[in-house]
Amino acid sequence: MTTKTSLLKVILLGDGGVGKSSIMNRYVTNKFDAHLFHTIGVEFLNKELEVDSHQVTLQIWDTAGQERFRSLRTPFYRGSDCCLLTFSVDDSQSFLNLGNWKKEFIYYADVKEPEKFPFVVLGNKVDVTERQVSTEEAQQWCQENGNFPYYETSAKDATNVAIAFDEAVRRVLALEERTDHLIPTDTVKLHRKPRSATSCCS
Amino acid sequence: MAADSVLKVLFELEGVFIHPSSEEGGSEQDSLISGCLRIVDKDADVLVEYRPLEDSDPSNMLCAGKDSSSVMEWDQCSGEKLLETQQSYETEWDMINAVSFKRRSVTNGEGSLNPAPCLPGSLNPAPCLPGSLNHSSERSRWAFSFSLSDLRCIRVKEQGWSFLLLQLSESCRSPPALHFHQGGSRDFLDSLRRFAVISQAAGEEVCLMVSSPNRALSQSFENLLDENNFGLVNQKFRNDPYVTTLGGFSKVTNYIFDAFRGTEEQHQRPPEEVADLLGEVIPGLEINQQEEPGFEVITRMDLGVRPPVSRRDPVSSEEWSRHQDAEGRMINVPLLKQIIFKGGLCHAKRKEAWKFLLGFFPWESTVEERKVLHRDKTDEYFRMKLQWKSVSEQQERRNSKLRDCRSLIEKDVNRTDRTNRFYEGLDNPGLVLLHDILMTYCMYDFDLGYVQGMSDLLSPVLYVMESEVDAFWCFVSFMDQMHQNFEEQMQGMKTQLIQLSTLLRLLDLSFWNYLEAQDSGYLYFCFRWLLIRFKRELSFQDVLRLWEVMWTGLPCQNFHLLLCCAILDSEKQKIMEENYGFNEILKHINELSMKLEIEEILQKAEGIGLQIKSCKDLPASISSILGWDPPAPPPALRTPQRGAACSSPLSRDSSAQNGCSPAFIS
Ligand SMILES: Nc1nc2c(ncn2[C@@H]2O[C@H](COP(=O)(O)OP(=O)(O)O)[C@@H](O)[C@H]2O)c(=O)[nH]1
Ligand SMILES: [Mg+2]
């Protein structure tokens, strides 16, 4: 019966203009703002949700994609529980850059075991008809790069956005559950950040 | 002798003189002491040493070359008279002392931390090596040596040659004046700069304040630490005593805080780590910048009450016309700027006035001259525009830089002020202009290219100008001011964050400490404010007002930093009461966007400026940030009609107040 709320940090990475901010806003406020500004600096929004009877506070981080701002963006990678690698299906360059984003994240987030880190890949703007990246290509990339779950989303018409975040949360929780069994409890704290510190174990 | 100490000579200069007569009131009237001045690294401490060269005594000369440890400490007992001489300088130092912190007076145990010969409490003649003591003739008693960490202040004087007066910490006797009859004082100072932060004291060109890393540390920890922890900190820093960054600095602070907090919850870690990384990124390269707040030396500043400030109505078309002569030259410009600062411009006048404010049109130009200028600039603009317009698709395929610029610009133009009537809808010509001007700017400054944020700076300018050419050149001028923000290393951003931190610490140490404790001392959360001058924080109309006020350059340089302070001042209560941490502060500040009241902020910022200005012992770093370094202001800076501008409490007159120092200058 005990409820515990975990605070999970999720970060959206990908080229500028693929729709990271729009995805975040769609997910948190369920709105799509066609007049949204491009992101400057670093922002985050919180979202409370329940996944498989786990209370979770998702802290979703969104950054500016331009190379120039890298040094002021990468410090925020630290402590991420999940990374959403995002490209736009109507922009092949953004797809080609996924690998770089993944590399940048792993490098700066200082992930202990990169092979096990939960990435989720989002191909955004599926509402657009002129695609430059096919579903198969994208799936193949995900397969080859660590068997990441892949979702085709549209921030504009809300396709798959919530589902993708749910999956991200499940991945993180599953990973932590596994870790729970393997490692004594106090080490787990490093990973999970109990918010309301109610006693453990449900 | 001294074989086991590691010694490295970092700087050496012969022909540096001491004038015993002036030091001792005439006991050695005729003789000047000539000697060798050195900076040495000894056992990881940087020492400044002076040894008289004794022509008559070759053994001593030999010795001087080899063995610095034989140098005698500045001889205390030669001193009653000297003390008086020194005290005559004292009044001049007062001002500086007021802003220099007091070193914790540690009477024992410090020796191991700081192997300076000049230990507090070692007031007896230095225990010198036997050899040199035997030679201790009149001359060698002028030898001295002190640790750079004890150096507080250097006064540079000129009387046909340069001489330096070195002021050490209270506990140490200051050495005699050094006369550089054969030059080299500048080299000496330059060398010192490699090991200490040297900045100009407020209001005094000739006075350089010195702070070295070690000292800054001990100061900052002054309130935090007890004896035990002190050792710990110092140990951490000894590895790298000369090169220390705010990043490292914060890290240690955090470390200490953790020690005090005891077992802090693990979930605190990521923000701290993020902060550490940011700290490294932001001030990491600042070592040679003098704003480094870690080194700044400020005790409690006594800021008076914030004076009430009133604003006025925007400058009307009639008022503007009254400042124009028959040929179209702008007259009474300082007064004009003053009323623009106080109230902004009515919208009808912006199109014209901004060109002057931004420097596209010279204030003293006539209508005719401006026509010529405009024609030339129009040509120039279209030449550059043609350059990118005429690049074929094939060419562009081989030009990744241009391609990237174009792609970035296209994406950002679609995401800039789209709710503004000038840029809304799908095929709004405003969007095309925004795009074309940004592309042309890439041609104008290809090294910079396009960086995100630039579209935000252009959009209001274009909106006001309603002309491609005018908007371009005004944007160019604006970018001249903002360029550093966008450069590869983002030096402008780093500098501003550090300057802001320095200011905030003066204005509100308790809030600054709070932020520092939340790993937010480097004010990362102000990034967007600074990058694009509050463009995203205010409504479009308020941005226009704010920018024209800023462009007057009044009441001081970097007024936008005072705006930051004003906003933070309004938010601090909430932030501290709610006990916001790193993330919450960032979120809170981000979410202030569009909720700020422009006139209120302007008033508050102006008030803060007045407060700082009337502060007596203004630290040098602060006055240099705000451009209040008034050692006899060069004529160009003087406003021609001081009387006219006097109605404003912020006219340049008050520089006299800040520079109350002139009274002390000999
Ligand atoms: N058609 C379509 N456009 C989108 C979608 N998501 C975002 N956009 C648009 O793509 C542009 C970039 O979106 P933004 O969220 O700013 O991208 P970011 O730079 O990754 O944060 C904006 O003009 C959005 O309106 C989507 O799902 N479909
Ligand atoms: Mg964005």
Quick summary of this structure?
The complex is a heterodimer of chains A (202) and B (666). With 202 residues, chain A is of the alpha/beta class.
What key attributes describe this structure?
A: alpha/beta, Rossmann fold, six-stranded mixed sheet, 6 strands, B: PH-domain like, Cyclin A, domain 1, Helicase, Ruva Protein, domain 3, 3 domains, 28 helices, 9% strand, disordered C terminus, binds guanosine-5'-diphosphate, binds magnesium ion, TBC1 domain family member 15 (chain B), Rab-GAP-TBC_dom (chain B), acetylation (chain B)
Task: Give an account of the 3D structure.
The complex is a heterodimer of chains A (202) and B (666). Chain A has 202 residues and is an alpha/beta fold. Chain A has one domain: Rossmann fold (3-Layer(aba) Sandwich). Helix content of chain A is 35%, strand content 22%. Chain A has 7 helices and 6 strands. Chain A has a 6-stranded mixed beta sheet, sandwiched between helices. In chain A, strand 5, helix 5 and strand 6 form a beta-alpha-beta unit. The longest helix of chain A has 22 residues. In chain A, 46% of the residues are buried. The C terminus of chain A is likely disordered. With 666 residues, chain B is an alpha+beta fold. Chain B folds into 3 domains: 212 residues, PH-domain like (Roll), CATH 2.30.29; 206 residues, Ypt/Rab-GAP domain of gyp1p, domain 3 (Cyclin A, domain 1, Orthogonal Bundle), CATH 1.10.472; 129 residues, putative rabgap domain of human tbc1 domain family member 14 like domains (Helicase, Ruva Protein, domain 3, Orthogonal Bundle), CATH 1.10.8.270. In chain B, the strands form 2 sheets. Chain B has a 5-stranded antiparallel beta sheet with strand order 7-6-5-9-8. A 4-stranded antiparallel beta sheet of chain B has the order 1-2-3-4, covered by helices on one side. In chain B, strand 8 and strand 9 form a beta hairpin. Chain B is globular, with a radius of gyration of 29 Å. The two termini of chain B are 44 Å apart. The interface between A and B is large, with 33 and 42 residues. The complex binds guanosine-5'-diphosphate and magnesium ion. The site of guanosine-5'-diphosphate has 20 residues of chain A, from helix 1.
